[in-house]
Amino acid sequence: MNEKEIKALIYLLDDPDADIFREIEHKLITCGPEVIPLLESSWESSFDPLSQGRIENIVHKIQFDQVKNDLQLWKLNNAEDLLEGLLIVNRYQYPNLNDEQVYFQLAELRRNAWFHLMYDMSPVEKVKLLNNILFREFGLSGNTSNYHDPQNSFIHKVLESKKGNPISLACIYALVAQKLDIPIYGINLPKHFVLAYVEGENNDKVLFYINVFNRGQIMREEDIFAFLRQLNLPISDEYTLPCDNLAIIKRVLRNLIAAYDHIDNAEKKLEVELLLSLIEGGE
Length: 283
Hints:
This protein is of the alpha+beta class. It is elongated. The chain folds into 2 domains: 3-77, Leucine-rich Repeat Variant (Alpha Horseshoe); 82-280, no CATH class. The chain has helices at 3-11, 18-31, 36-45, 49-77, 82-93, 100-114, 123-137, 155-161, 166-179, 221-230, 237-240, 245-262, 266-280; strands at 141-142, 163-164, 184-187, 194-199, 205-211, 217-219. The protein has 13 helices and 6 strands.
């Protein structure tokens, strides 16, 4: 469909006939993201609330379709890239965000830590260095005053506000650490996501755990076991060894579902539930 045909369809968006509108909407959505600039231009020049509202809904549906596609492709082909998964989730709420600002911020945090990193540092010393860079100098902290805010699940908002939930803070911490070849990975602990400093060929030997929500507090294996016993859960590899990136993104989405439920945003809750179902299928 050429630009002239698309503009003709957009011109008809104020048609009062619901069947005609649905047909126009379907045609525009199937055109994909390429039509968004024309839709946005039409929205800016329109003074009709009906037409503007319809344009907003169509743009959102196109962008949501893109997020669904991107997330499924990420699961199939790129799940080793945690940051890309987080950015796809980010684009659900912020479709026009330039990802470069997130890459730049993480690179800057890595560079600040690298300046002070020494070859002969022990694992504990490396964690103390990361804690100093991320929590004291940069100012990251747990969002205790607004724990259920959906913004806690979007990486660029966490970097911007410097406040997040356990899993978003853990993701930032792990991404910076791994870029420095420090083997720190996520632990899918129920009720509280933490990190582990690991060693071994398969990252299957945990030296200690890190509670990022508590400014990088170091935890012993016994602390994790006691926590699991408190929850009446088994002490299993699922809860004590590093999880994969797919498990992390699923948990980010579950947190987002709970956040939208907390603020009674049923529409967004349903959309994120759909995103979660797309990467849970077939397992």
